[in-house]
Amino acid sequence: MKTIPIFFTFDKNYILAAKVAIHSMLAHASKDYLYELYILHTSLSERDCRNISSVVTSFTANIHFINVAEYEKKIEGLEGKAHYSKEIFYKLIAADLFPQHERIICTDVDVVFTGDISDVFFMFPDEDFIFAGVGPIENKGRMQKYKAKFNKEEQEILEHEIGAGFLLLNLKGIREKNKQDEMINYYISNYERLILPEQDCMILTCWPLVRYVPIRFSIGTYLYTANLQTINFYRGTPELDCSHPEAIIRIKEAIANPVQIHYIGPDKPWNSIMVTKQREWLRAMIKTGCLWEYIYNQPKFLAQKIKKYSLRRFIRKHFNI
Hints:
The chain has helices at 15-28, 46-53, 69-72, 94-97, 118-121, 152-158, 171-176, 179-190, 197-206, 244-256, 278-288, 291-319; strands at residues 3-9, 34-41, 61-67, 104-107, 111-113, 131-133, 166-169, 210-212, 219-220, 260-262.
């Protein structure tokens, strides 16, 4: 039986989300493969690991926990940005951590899976690339935030940016081209100006050795409320290199049949109400067997949100941003 390796990286605050993501992924994944799951972390206890492991027992899958605390020294002094945690850095060290694999899938856990991911693992056979994922959907306004911090050449590369929430990494290619050290050094040296830290870093160091996977493999929730008629579609994404009416048809097909729904932004379906496509996540959470865990954690999630929004208001008030 062929093996598909997949890794996740998150902290203790995302245990519930990770369980739902993993269970929903395996529930929809092809039964033709063995799934080797890896959790990269620095703070999970043995009890946490047993809790997470409980969701894979009924599937053809193994789960492994890798403490990457030794790599934390590389990013000492780099403060978190917005709702991004330090764990995003560990996507850049996969080639070092998984010498037994030539390619691997990486996914965030603020997601729910509603389709089979296995096809992605076998895409682009024998092609020279470093990573692959879903490309940009639209142009309008997307690059404005980069103009003050990046030169024209860098902005042209950033236009091709791939979402880092769901990636296929070509570990063999990363090793052959020594891209891991290049990504790490760039990340650390440029962290202050990186807006989407690991995502910006990867495209700026690896372009043009990237590939685009079909949009349905990671659908941002904003697309379900967007006015598709007014979107200026990015034609660098192969599916959208067509007329505007045809692009709308293709986007509608993708959002009607997603493989992954990605809850982008600070408001998540487990810590907020009225989140777009929240019902899909709640259904998956119940199927995972986490209803009591979800209820039990609500006070903690509420406290985290109050603290976060209080800090945000303080910064806006005193620094006028």
